[in-house]
Design brief:
mainly alpha, 23 helices, 80% helix, 0% strand, globular
Length: 403
Protein backbone atom coordinates (compact mmCIF):
# COMPACT_ATOMS: atom_id res chain seq x y z
CA UNK A 1 0.00 0.00 0.00
CA UNK A 2 2.65 2.52 0.97
CA UNK A 3 4.86 1.54 -1.97
CA UNK A 4 2.02 2.72 -4.21
CA UNK A 5 1.66 5.87 -2.11
CA UNK A 6 5.35 6.67 -2.45
CA UNK A 7 5.30 6.00 -6.21
CA UNK A 8 2.42 8.44 -6.66
CA UNK A 9 4.22 11.23 -4.81
CA UNK A 10 7.72 10.71 -6.29
CA UNK A 11 7.09 9.63 -9.90
CA UNK A 12 7.24 13.32 -10.76
CA UNK A 13 11.05 12.99 -10.52
CA UNK A 14 11.11 10.81 -13.64
CA UNK A 15 8.58 13.02 -15.43
CA UNK A 16 10.20 16.33 -14.49
CA UNK A 17 12.50 16.83 -17.53
CA UNK A 18 9.69 16.25 -20.09
CA UNK A 19 7.07 17.90 -17.89
CA UNK A 20 9.22 21.03 -17.52
CA UNK A 21 9.50 21.35 -21.30
CA UNK A 22 5.78 20.78 -21.94
CA UNK A 23 4.56 23.09 -19.16
CA UNK A 24 7.42 25.61 -19.67
CA UNK A 25 8.70 25.42 -16.10
CA UNK A 26 12.14 26.69 -15.06
CA UNK A 27 14.16 24.70 -12.45
CA UNK A 28 12.80 26.77 -9.55
CA UNK A 29 9.19 26.17 -10.62
CA UNK A 30 9.95 22.47 -11.12
CA UNK A 31 11.37 22.23 -7.62
CA UNK A 32 8.33 24.09 -6.30
CA UNK A 33 5.71 21.73 -7.80
CA UNK A 34 7.71 18.72 -6.61
CA UNK A 35 8.00 20.07 -3.08
CA UNK A 36 4.69 21.88 -2.50
CA UNK A 37 3.15 18.45 -1.82
CA UNK A 38 4.77 18.58 1.62
CA UNK A 39 3.07 21.77 2.76
CA UNK A 40 -0.39 20.27 2.32
CA UNK A 41 1.04 17.00 3.72
CA UNK A 42 0.91 18.73 7.13
CA UNK A 43 -2.85 18.88 7.38
CA UNK A 44 -4.04 15.40 8.38
CA UNK A 45 -0.97 14.01 10.15
CA UNK A 46 -2.00 14.64 13.75
CA UNK A 47 -5.76 14.05 13.23
CA UNK A 48 -5.00 10.81 11.38
CA UNK A 49 -2.80 9.52 14.20
CA UNK A 50 -5.62 10.28 16.64
CA UNK A 51 -8.31 8.65 14.47
CA UNK A 52 -6.20 5.56 13.84
CA UNK A 53 -5.84 5.05 17.60
CA UNK A 54 -9.45 5.83 18.54
CA UNK A 55 -11.28 4.51 15.44
CA UNK A 56 -9.62 2.32 12.79
CA UNK A 57 -6.35 2.60 10.87
CA UNK A 58 -7.65 0.14 8.27
CA UNK A 59 -10.82 2.11 7.51
CA UNK A 60 -9.07 5.47 7.51
CA UNK A 61 -6.45 4.27 5.02
CA UNK A 62 -9.19 2.74 2.85
CA UNK A 63 -10.78 6.16 2.44
CA UNK A 64 -7.43 7.79 1.71
CA UNK A 65 -6.58 5.16 -0.94
CA UNK A 66 -9.53 6.30 -3.03
CA UNK A 67 -8.91 10.02 -2.64
CA UNK A 68 -5.18 9.99 -3.39
CA UNK A 69 -5.73 7.72 -6.41
CA UNK A 70 -7.94 10.31 -8.08
CA UNK A 71 -5.54 13.14 -7.17
CA UNK A 72 -2.47 11.26 -8.47
CA UNK A 73 -4.17 10.45 -11.78
CA UNK A 74 -5.26 14.07 -12.01
CA UNK A 75 -1.61 15.15 -12.18
CA UNK A 76 -1.53 13.57 -15.63
CA UNK A 77 -4.41 15.74 -16.88
CA UNK A 78 -2.95 19.20 -16.19
CA UNK A 79 -1.98 21.72 -18.88
CA UNK A 80 -0.28 24.53 -16.93
CA UNK A 81 2.22 24.98 -14.12
CA UNK A 82 -0.54 26.37 -11.87
CA UNK A 83 -2.85 23.39 -12.46
CA UNK A 84 -0.02 20.99 -11.61
CA UNK A 85 0.75 22.98 -8.47
CA UNK A 86 -2.89 22.69 -7.32
CA UNK A 87 -3.03 18.93 -8.02
CA UNK A 88 0.18 18.34 -6.03
CA UNK A 89 -1.34 20.25 -3.10
CA UNK A 90 -4.47 18.08 -3.22
CA UNK A 91 -2.36 14.92 -3.45
CA UNK A 92 -0.45 16.00 -0.34
CA UNK A 93 -3.69 16.41 1.62
CA UNK A 94 -4.96 13.02 0.46
CA UNK A 95 -1.76 11.18 1.44
CA UNK A 96 -1.06 13.06 4.66
CA UNK A 97 -2.88 10.68 6.98
CA UNK A 98 -1.42 7.43 5.69
CA UNK A 99 1.98 7.46 7.42
CA UNK A 100 0.88 7.97 11.07
CA UNK A 101 -2.07 5.61 10.60
CA UNK A 102 0.25 2.85 9.39
CA UNK A 103 2.70 3.40 12.28
CA UNK A 104 -0.21 3.08 14.70
CA UNK A 105 -1.32 -0.11 12.94
CA UNK A 106 2.15 -1.62 13.33
CA UNK A 107 2.30 -0.66 17.01
CA UNK A 108 -0.87 -2.75 17.53
CA UNK A 109 0.92 -5.83 16.20
CA UNK A 110 4.62 -5.73 17.20
CA UNK A 111 6.17 -5.58 20.70
CA UNK A 112 9.07 -3.27 21.50
CA UNK A 113 11.86 -5.77 20.78
CA UNK A 114 10.52 -6.34 17.25
CA UNK A 115 9.37 -2.83 16.38
CA UNK A 116 12.44 -1.39 14.63
CA UNK A 117 12.52 -4.43 12.32
CA UNK A 118 8.78 -4.22 11.73
CA UNK A 119 9.05 -0.51 10.94
CA UNK A 120 12.01 -1.10 8.64
CA UNK A 121 10.39 -3.98 6.77
CA UNK A 122 7.39 -1.72 6.17
CA UNK A 123 9.55 1.32 5.32
CA UNK A 124 11.47 -0.73 2.78
CA UNK A 125 8.55 0.49 0.67
CA UNK A 126 10.25 3.90 0.37
CA UNK A 127 13.37 2.82 -1.54
CA UNK A 128 11.52 -0.20 -2.99
CA UNK A 129 9.00 2.12 -4.63
CA UNK A 130 11.84 3.81 -6.52
CA UNK A 131 13.49 0.49 -7.40
CA UNK A 132 10.25 -0.92 -8.82
CA UNK A 133 8.74 2.17 -10.40
CA UNK A 134 11.77 3.91 -11.92
CA UNK A 135 12.49 1.36 -14.68
CA UNK A 136 8.75 0.99 -15.35
CA UNK A 137 8.21 4.75 -15.40
CA UNK A 138 11.18 5.19 -17.74
CA UNK A 139 9.79 2.54 -20.09
CA UNK A 140 6.37 4.23 -20.17
CA UNK A 141 8.01 7.60 -20.83
CA UNK A 142 10.02 6.14 -23.73
CA UNK A 143 6.94 4.50 -25.29
CA UNK A 144 4.20 7.03 -24.43
CA UNK A 145 4.57 10.16 -22.28
CA UNK A 146 4.45 11.52 -18.75
CA UNK A 147 0.66 11.91 -18.83
CA UNK A 148 0.14 8.19 -19.42
CA UNK A 149 2.63 7.39 -16.65
CA UNK A 150 0.84 9.61 -14.11
CA UNK A 151 -2.63 8.27 -14.95
CA UNK A 152 -1.61 4.57 -14.94
CA UNK A 153 0.29 4.80 -11.66
CA UNK A 154 -2.49 6.95 -10.16
CA UNK A 155 -5.00 4.14 -10.77
CA UNK A 156 -3.03 1.62 -8.67
CA UNK A 157 -4.45 2.56 -5.23
CA UNK A 158 -7.99 2.06 -6.51
CA UNK A 159 -7.10 -1.52 -7.46
CA UNK A 160 -5.16 -2.14 -4.25
CA UNK A 161 -8.14 -1.17 -2.10
CA UNK A 162 -9.69 -4.62 -2.68
CA UNK A 163 -6.60 -6.43 -1.35
CA UNK A 164 -6.34 -4.03 1.59
CA UNK A 165 -9.94 -4.69 2.64
CA UNK A 166 -9.57 -8.48 2.48
CA UNK A 167 -6.19 -9.01 4.18
CA UNK A 168 -5.61 -6.23 6.73
CA UNK A 169 -6.83 -6.27 10.34
CA UNK A 170 -6.48 -3.45 12.87
CA UNK A 171 -5.52 -5.70 15.78
CA UNK A 172 -4.53 -9.34 16.40
CA UNK A 173 -7.88 -9.98 18.11
CA UNK A 174 -9.65 -9.24 14.80
CA UNK A 175 -7.55 -11.64 12.70
CA UNK A 176 -9.05 -15.04 11.97
CA UNK A 177 -5.76 -16.64 10.90
CA UNK A 178 -3.77 -16.11 14.11
CA UNK A 179 -3.32 -18.97 16.58
CA UNK A 180 -4.56 -18.76 20.16
CA UNK A 181 -1.00 -18.92 21.52
CA UNK A 182 0.21 -16.10 19.28
CA UNK A 183 -2.82 -13.99 20.11
CA UNK A 184 -2.32 -14.46 23.84
CA UNK A 185 1.40 -13.61 23.58
CA UNK A 186 0.82 -10.44 21.56
CA UNK A 187 -2.07 -9.12 23.62
CA UNK A 188 -0.36 -9.73 26.97
CA UNK A 189 3.01 -8.35 25.87
CA UNK A 190 1.58 -5.22 24.24
CA UNK A 191 -0.72 -4.58 27.20
CA UNK A 192 2.13 -4.92 29.72
CA UNK A 193 4.24 -2.47 27.72
CA UNK A 194 1.37 0.02 27.49
CA UNK A 195 0.62 -0.24 31.21
CA UNK A 196 4.28 0.37 32.09
CA UNK A 197 4.31 3.59 30.07
CA UNK A 198 0.96 4.74 31.44
CA UNK A 199 2.14 4.14 35.00
CA UNK A 200 5.12 6.47 34.61
CA UNK A 201 3.25 9.13 32.60
CA UNK A 202 -0.41 8.75 33.67
CA UNK A 203 -1.55 12.22 32.54
CA UNK A 204 0.16 13.04 29.25
CA UNK A 205 -0.66 16.48 27.83
CA UNK A 206 -0.13 18.57 24.72
CA UNK A 207 3.15 19.68 26.29
CA UNK A 208 4.51 16.31 25.15
CA UNK A 209 4.76 17.72 21.62
CA UNK A 210 7.29 20.29 22.79
CA UNK A 211 9.59 18.11 24.85
CA UNK A 212 13.24 18.53 23.77
CA UNK A 213 13.45 14.96 22.51
CA UNK A 214 10.36 15.36 20.31
CA UNK A 215 11.66 18.64 18.86
CA UNK A 216 15.01 16.97 18.14
CA UNK A 217 13.21 14.20 16.28
CA UNK A 218 11.35 16.84 14.26
CA UNK A 219 14.60 18.59 13.33
CA UNK A 220 16.37 15.35 12.41
CA UNK A 221 13.40 14.32 10.27
CA UNK A 222 13.40 17.76 8.62
CA UNK A 223 17.10 17.49 7.70
CA UNK A 224 16.70 13.92 6.49
CA UNK A 225 13.90 14.93 4.15
CA UNK A 226 15.89 17.86 2.75
CA UNK A 227 18.45 15.35 1.51
CA UNK A 228 16.15 12.48 0.62
CA UNK A 229 13.86 14.43 -1.66
CA UNK A 230 16.47 16.84 -2.98
CA UNK A 231 18.40 13.71 -4.00
CA UNK A 232 15.40 11.74 -5.28
CA UNK A 233 13.69 14.52 -7.24
CA UNK A 234 16.83 15.80 -8.98
CA UNK A 235 18.99 12.69 -9.51
CA UNK A 236 17.20 11.73 -12.79
CA UNK A 237 17.75 15.25 -14.14
CA UNK A 238 21.38 15.17 -13.03
CA UNK A 239 21.93 11.84 -14.78
CA UNK A 240 20.24 13.09 -17.93
CA UNK A 241 22.37 16.24 -18.01
CA UNK A 242 25.62 14.37 -17.36
CA UNK A 243 25.00 11.70 -20.00
CA UNK A 244 22.35 11.71 -22.70
CA UNK A 245 20.57 8.61 -21.46
CA UNK A 246 17.21 7.13 -22.40
CA UNK A 247 14.44 7.32 -19.80
CA UNK A 248 14.63 3.55 -19.35
CA UNK A 249 18.39 3.64 -18.63
CA UNK A 250 17.94 6.58 -16.26
CA UNK A 251 15.24 4.62 -14.41
CA UNK A 252 17.51 1.59 -14.01
CA UNK A 253 20.38 3.73 -12.70
CA UNK A 254 18.03 5.54 -10.29
CA UNK A 255 17.03 2.16 -8.81
CA UNK A 256 20.61 1.30 -7.76
CA UNK A 257 21.06 3.73 -4.82
CA UNK A 258 17.68 2.77 -3.41
CA UNK A 259 18.54 -0.93 -3.59
CA UNK A 260 21.46 -0.07 -1.29
CA UNK A 261 18.95 1.75 0.93
CA UNK A 262 16.83 -1.39 1.30
CA UNK A 263 19.76 -3.51 2.45
CA UNK A 264 20.96 -0.86 4.91
CA UNK A 265 17.48 -0.46 6.43
CA UNK A 266 17.06 -4.18 7.10
CA UNK A 267 20.56 -4.74 8.51
CA UNK A 268 20.61 -1.62 10.66
CA UNK A 269 17.16 -2.20 12.15
CA UNK A 270 17.99 -5.84 12.90
CA UNK A 271 21.12 -4.82 14.79
CA UNK A 272 19.28 -1.98 16.55
CA UNK A 273 16.63 -4.40 17.85
CA UNK A 274 19.30 -6.89 18.87
CA UNK A 275 21.20 -4.29 20.93
CA UNK A 276 18.19 -2.19 21.98
CA UNK A 277 20.13 0.94 20.97
CA UNK A 278 18.64 3.57 18.64
CA UNK A 279 20.55 6.90 18.44
CA UNK A 280 23.96 5.47 17.52
CA UNK A 281 22.43 3.36 14.76
CA UNK A 282 20.85 6.52 13.36
CA UNK A 283 23.97 8.70 13.67
CA UNK A 284 26.30 6.27 11.91
CA UNK A 285 24.02 5.81 8.90
CA UNK A 286 23.57 9.57 8.46
CA UNK A 287 27.35 10.05 8.62
CA UNK A 288 28.02 7.32 6.03
CA UNK A 289 25.48 8.85 3.64
CA UNK A 290 26.85 12.37 4.03
CA UNK A 291 30.49 11.37 3.58
CA UNK A 292 29.83 9.36 0.43
CA UNK A 293 27.59 12.02 -1.13
CA UNK A 294 30.27 14.67 -0.65
CA UNK A 295 32.89 12.25 -1.99
CA UNK A 296 30.72 11.60 -5.05
CA UNK A 297 30.44 15.34 -5.72
CA UNK A 298 34.22 15.81 -5.44
CA UNK A 299 34.94 12.88 -7.78
CA UNK A 300 32.28 13.63 -10.39
CA UNK A 301 34.54 15.66 -12.67
CA UNK A 302 37.39 13.15 -13.06
CA UNK A 303 35.94 9.77 -12.08
CA UNK A 304 32.20 9.72 -12.92
CA UNK A 305 31.87 5.95 -12.46
CA UNK A 306 33.41 6.02 -8.99
CA UNK A 307 31.36 9.13 -8.18
CA UNK A 308 28.13 7.30 -9.01
CA UNK A 309 29.21 4.37 -6.81
CA UNK A 310 29.63 6.84 -3.91
CA UNK A 311 26.26 8.41 -4.67
CA UNK A 312 24.67 4.95 -4.46
CA UNK A 313 25.91 4.72 -0.86
CA UNK A 314 24.16 7.99 -0.03
CA UNK A 315 20.98 5.93 0.42
CA UNK A 316 22.52 4.44 3.59
CA UNK A 317 22.08 7.91 5.10
CA UNK A 318 18.62 8.66 3.74
CA UNK A 319 17.10 5.25 4.53
CA UNK A 320 19.22 3.21 6.93
CA UNK A 321 18.08 5.05 10.08
CA UNK A 322 14.31 4.79 9.55
CA UNK A 323 13.59 1.63 11.57
CA UNK A 324 15.25 2.83 14.81
CA UNK A 325 14.00 6.39 14.32
CA UNK A 326 10.30 5.49 14.19
CA UNK A 327 10.62 2.92 16.98
CA UNK A 328 11.41 5.69 19.49
CA UNK A 329 7.93 7.30 19.87
CA UNK A 330 5.96 4.04 20.11
CA UNK A 331 8.27 2.52 22.72
CA UNK A 332 8.68 5.60 24.95
CA UNK A 333 5.29 7.37 24.84
CA UNK A 334 1.87 6.44 26.21
CA UNK A 335 -0.25 4.77 23.55
CA UNK A 336 -2.81 7.58 23.37
CA UNK A 337 -0.15 10.13 22.37
CA UNK A 338 2.24 8.04 20.26
CA UNK A 339 0.12 8.33 17.10
CA UNK A 340 -0.40 12.11 17.22
CA UNK A 341 3.27 12.71 18.10
CA UNK A 342 4.39 10.58 15.14
CA UNK A 343 2.05 12.59 12.94
CA UNK A 344 3.56 15.83 14.31
CA UNK A 345 7.14 14.66 13.74
CA UNK A 346 6.38 13.38 10.24
CA UNK A 347 4.34 16.39 9.09
CA UNK A 348 6.80 19.09 10.17
CA UNK A 349 9.78 16.96 9.22
CA UNK A 350 8.44 16.44 5.72
CA UNK A 351 8.59 20.16 5.05
CA UNK A 352 12.30 19.52 4.57
CA UNK A 353 11.37 17.81 1.30
CA UNK A 354 9.99 21.10 -0.05
CA UNK A 355 13.14 23.04 0.87
CA UNK A 356 15.44 20.27 -0.39
CA UNK A 357 13.89 20.04 -3.85
CA UNK A 358 13.63 23.84 -4.09
CA UNK A 359 17.22 24.46 -2.93
CA UNK A 360 18.74 22.05 -5.45
CA UNK A 361 16.59 23.58 -8.21
CA UNK A 362 17.69 27.09 -7.20
CA UNK A 363 21.39 26.19 -7.12
CA UNK A 364 21.07 24.38 -10.45
CA UNK A 365 19.48 27.46 -12.04
CA UNK A 366 22.15 29.85 -10.75
CA UNK A 367 25.25 27.66 -11.10
CA UNK A 368 24.31 25.66 -14.20
CA UNK A 369 24.83 22.27 -12.54
CA UNK A 370 24.10 20.00 -9.60
CA UNK A 371 27.47 19.93 -7.79
CA UNK A 372 26.70 22.67 -5.27
CA UNK A 373 23.18 21.39 -4.65
CA UNK A 374 24.27 17.82 -3.98
CA UNK A 375 27.22 19.05 -1.90
CA UNK A 376 24.76 20.95 0.30
CA UNK A 377 22.70 17.78 0.76
CA UNK A 378 25.80 15.91 1.94
CA UNK A 379 26.51 18.57 4.58
CA UNK A 380 22.90 18.38 5.79
CA UNK A 381 23.28 14.63 6.40
CA UNK A 382 26.38 15.24 8.52
CA UNK A 383 24.50 17.80 10.62
CA UNK A 384 21.68 15.26 11.16
CA UNK A 385 24.27 12.69 12.25
CA UNK A 386 25.57 15.06 14.90
CA UNK A 387 22.09 15.90 16.22
CA UNK A 388 21.33 12.21 16.76
CA UNK A 389 23.99 12.13 19.47
CA UNK A 390 21.94 14.60 21.53
CA UNK A 391 18.94 12.28 21.72
CA UNK A 392 18.34 10.48 25.00
CA UNK A 393 19.35 6.83 25.15
CA UNK A 394 16.04 5.02 24.63
CA UNK A 395 17.22 2.07 26.70
CA UNK A 396 17.13 4.27 29.77
CA UNK A 397 14.32 6.60 28.67
CA UNK A 398 12.04 3.67 27.91
CA UNK A 399 12.64 2.36 31.40
CA UNK A 400 11.80 5.79 32.76
CA UNK A 401 8.81 6.18 30.45
CA UNK A 402 9.94 9.57 29.23
CA UNK A 403 10.70 10.91 25.74
Amino acid sequence: MYTISYVDRTNISMALPAMSRDLRMDPVQAGNVAGVFFWSYLLLQIPAGYLANRWSAKRLISILLVVWGFCAAGCGLVHTYRELWVMRVLLGIAESGVWPATLVLLSHWFPRNERARANALWMVCLPLAVVISSPFSGWVLDHWNWRVMMIVEGALPLLWLIIWQVFIDDRPSEAKWISAAELNYLESTLENEAVALERVDPNPSLGTFFRPQVLLLVLISFLRNITDFGFLIWLPSALESAKKLSNTTTGVLLALPFSVGIVSMILNSWHSDKSGERRGHMSVTFAVGGIFLIAGVLMSGQWPGLAFACICLTAVGTNGHLGPFWAIPTETLPRKLAGPVMGFVNSVGNLGAFFGSLAVGYLNKHTGGFLYGFGLLGIVLLVASTLCLFLSDTRSSAAAGKL
